[in-house]
């Protein structure tokens, strides 16, 4: 559904169509069709341009990361854990030997403490796509 811009919304929360399409791994024409078919919610700017809320991209992120089951399996690393949630890295804070990684997944935020070495090896940065692997009481981060 398309709505007019709302006061109080941060500009950083709204993506241009090309940015949203890139994050979702789809083409620009596809995202336009999704807007027209109401498959993805957009907000109109005062100038009449569509903007996609980051929450909409987060909602659709996993579904578009590989159209077939086989393609999805290639995206998600082969690990024994099945509780893998794909989202967007919000922040990475490295301090000494440890790093705090926050990932936004469908409007929720998951925080994981990993080694600083792991965070550096994965080159984790805000805005990147990553998966949280949840196993018992531990959450591991996979860069995808």
Could you characterize what this model shows?
- The structure is a single chain.
- The longest helix has 11 residues.
- Helix 1 crosses helix 2.
- The strands form two sheets. This protein has a five-stranded antiparallel sheet. Strands 1-3-4-2 form a four-stranded mixed sheet.
- A hairpin with a 5-residue loop joins strand 3 and strand 4.
- The protein starts with a strand and ends with a strand.
- It is of the alpha+beta class.
- Helix content is 28%, strand content 37%.
- The N terminus is likely disordered.
- It has two domains: 53 residues, Multidrug-efflux Transporter Regulator, Chain: A, Domain 2 (Orthogonal Bundle); 60 residues, RNA polymerase II/Efflux pump adaptor protein, barrel-sandwich hybrid domain (OB fold (Dihydrolipoamide Acetyltransferase, E2P)).
Key structural traits:
144 residues, alpha+beta, Multidrug-efflux Transporter Regulator, Chain: A, Domain 2, OB fold (Dihydrolipoamide Acetyltransferase, E2P), 2 domains, five-stranded antiparallel β-sheet, four-stranded mixed β-sheet, 5 helices, 28% helix, disordered N terminus
* Helix and strand sequence: EEHHEEHHEEEHEE
Query: What is the CATH class of the largest domain?
Result: Mainly Beta
- Report the principal-axis shape: elongated
Average pLDDT, rounded to a whole number, is 80
Work out the radius of gyration: 16 Å
Tally of discrete structural domains: 2
- Span from first to last CA? 30 Å
Largest sheet: 5 strands, antiparallel
State the strand order across the main sheet.
7-6-5-8-9
Assembly status:
single chain
Q: Can you tell me the CATH topology of the largest domain?
A: OB fold (Dihydrolipoamide Acetyltransferase, E2P)
CATH homology superfamily name of the largest domain: RNA polymerase II/Efflux pump adaptor protein, barrel-sandwich hybrid domain
């Amino acid at each position: 559904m398309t709505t007019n811009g709302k006061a109080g919304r941060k500009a950083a929360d709204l993506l241009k169509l090309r940015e949203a399409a890139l994050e979702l791994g789809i083409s620009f024409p596809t995202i336009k069709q999704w807007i027209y078919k109401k498959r993805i919610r957009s907000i109109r700017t005062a100038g009449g341009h569509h903007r996609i809320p980051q929450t909409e991209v987060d909602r659709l992120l996993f579904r578009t990361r590989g159209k077939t089951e086989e393609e999805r399996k290639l995206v998600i690393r082969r690990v024994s854990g099945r509780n893998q949630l794909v989202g967007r890295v919000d922040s990475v804070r490295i301090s000494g030997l440890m790093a705090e990684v926050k990932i936004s997944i469908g409007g929720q935020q998951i925080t994981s403490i990993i080694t600083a070495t792991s965070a550096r090896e994965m080159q984790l940065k805000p805005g990147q796509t990553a998966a949280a692997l949840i196993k018992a009481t531990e959450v591991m981060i996979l860069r995808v």
